[in-house]
Specification:
By secondary structure, the chain is of the alpha+beta class. The chain has one domain. It is built from five helices and nine strands. Strands 2-3-4-5-6-7-8-9 form an eight-stranded antiparallel barrel. The longest helix is centred in the first third of the chain and has 11 residues. The chain is globular and about 55 Å long.
Length: 256
């Protein structure tokens, strides 16, 4: 199973990737509110305050940023050093379209769902001011946690469920440049099924009563992600690190 999953990874890695963020040391109270995904305005009305809330479009490419501009190369080095990855798993690029919602949730579509089956990614986002993580002065770091269900890329009617992908998705929001964000993604894969695509679960009641964990995967895809990106050959479950710049999709109003 692992072999078939990894062999189709270049398409998989199109991570439904999205929603990361960062928090500047000088974040204002309004920025904090937005960073936590809370809305202060009535339904149907938009706030004029800069925020990361909205739909974005961009292209992610693997780190290290070989052949890219010096800024992105330095960004990759700061995030992951030599940026090890699982061989054969990183496609040359991942076009993506994440949406950051005001209620703290996030959805992400990417080109991976075109070439190899996986569902739309869904999850949550929040500000991430952790001083042990790379921060950028004047920008708010956001991090998202989301999941998509992964197929093995088989023909329609024959494809099998093989597990879930859960990326670490991080962005840096600059209120003085609110329509563009830089960031990185580190997708982790959890092979939670057997060879027939059936989820391997814990014994009933293993972790509690019926409303706590019945039919819960043996490999927990909701546990905290390990730090950084340790590739499969080194005992981890990370495909690699992608860097990106994403751009806000605007309403095109006024129409001129």
């Amino acid at each position: 199973m692992k072999r078939s999953v990894l062999s189709s990874l270049p398409a998989i890695i199109v991570l439904g990737l999205f929603v990361g963020g960062f928090v500047p040391n000088s974040a204002t109270s309004n920025a904090t509110v937005h960073a936590q995904g809370k809305s202060q305005f009535a339904p149907g009305h938009q706030s004029n305050d800069p925020s990361a809330i909205g739909t974005w479009f961009g292209v992610a490419r693997p780190c290290p940023a070989t052949g890219d501009d010096a800024g992105h190369a330095a960004f990759c080095q700061a995030i992951c050093g030599l940026c090890p990855s699982t061989p054969g798993t990183l496609p040359p690029e991942v076009p993506m379209m994440p949406t950051v919602h005001a209620d703290g949730t996030v959805t992400v579509n990417d080109a991976g769902s075109i070439t190899i089956f996986h569902t739309t990614a869904q999850g949550a986002w929040a500000a991430d001011p952790d001083p042990t993580q790379p921060q950028i002065a004047g920008r708010t770091r956001f991090q998202a946690s989301f999941i998509w269900l992964q197929g093995d890329g088989g023909l329609p009617g024959f494809a099998k469920f093989v597990g879930v992908a859960r990326p670490r998705f991080v962005t840096y929001f600059d209120p003085t440049n609110p329509d563009n964000m830089i960031g990185y993604i580190q997708p982790h894969f959890f092979p939670i099924t057997d060879a027939n695509g059936v989820v391997n679960v814990l014994p009933s009641g293993h972790k509690g009563s019926l409303d706590v964990t019945n039919h819960y995967p043996v490999i927990d895809p909701l546990a905290k992600l390990p730090p950084g990106c340790t590739p499969f050959q080194n005992g981890g479950n990370c495909f690699g690190t992608f860097h990106f710049t994403i751009h806000r999709v605007t309403a095109n109003v006024p129409n001129s």
